[in-house]
Amino acid sequence: MRNLFNPNSQEPFKISRTKIELFIDCPRCFYLELRKGISRPPGFPYTLNNAVDYLLKKEFDIHRANGEPHPLMKTYKIDAVPFAHEKLDYWRRVGIYYDHRPTNFIIYGKVDDIWVDKDRNLIIVDYKATSTSEEIDMETGKPHHLTYKREVEVYQWLFKQKKFKVSDTAYFVYVNALKDRKAFDGRLDFDVRIIPHKGTVGWVEDAILAAHKCLFADTLPKPSADCEYCAYRRRAQDIEVT
């Protein structure tokens, strides 16, 4: 059954990390999906990205079981080890959940990985995969990089709400498939690097409250100026069908 918001219901309503991002991207698309059941068209599955994600988890889990840092962590001088916790698999597959009482929302998100430093601060880690000849620079303000940053910040917020000690610094394990090889030969070569991000979580609470207010409205909110989906709807409505 579709998870639709009913303003008259007293039952807690689940809001995923991705739906918070949808609200930030476009309040109208957020409202249409969660109040009216009209979703954006789904994108294509990123099967190669999923494969990289799966293999990275297996690799870091080997070092987690041994209580030792991954060689990449040593290379980047990160004084931590992969975090061993009985709920890690659950947080990855199902998510970490928090009951946000002011809105009666249950906020949740699925993490890729967690490390822990010598002071027992949890470090949020997210795996990313791409294929580009450009230098990967998270500080250029590109929309997808801003989305990535907000993603780990929501995870930081969630773990803080669950009373864990959380480091302000999160890390992206960024995997880039290289395209400068002379021949394919049935294999891909990757450049793997770790990119730090100092998160700020103050915006998360405000976004949740604003999303809550949006869902209680009786009229459609304004679309974001740069929402391609809303622009398509407007353009389609302007065309007379004969």
Structure, explained:
The chain is an alpha/beta fold and 242 residues long. The protein has a single domain, classed as Lambda Exonuclease, Chain A (Alpha-Beta Complex), CATH 3.90.320. The protein is built from eight helices and eight strands; from the N terminus they run βααααβαββββαββαα. The chain has helices at residues 17-25, 27-36, 47-66, 71-75, 88-93, 143-161, 202-216, 228-238; strands at 13-16, 80-82, 96-100, 105-109, 113-117, 122-130, 169-177, 190-198. The strands form two sheets. It has a five-stranded mixed β-sheet. A three-stranded mixed β-sheet has the order 1-4-3. Strand 5 (113-117) and strand 6 form a beta hairpin. Helix 1 (17-25) packs across helix 2 (27-36). It is globular and about 55 Å long. The mean pLDDT is 93.
From the structure above, extract its key features:
242 residues, alpha/beta, 5-stranded mixed β-sheet, 8 helices
Q: Count of helical segments? A: 8
The helix-strand sequence is EHHHHEHEEEEHEEHH
Number of domains: 1
User: What is the CATH-assigned architecture?
Assistant: Alpha-Beta Complex
Strands of the largest sheet, in order across it?
2-5-6-7-8
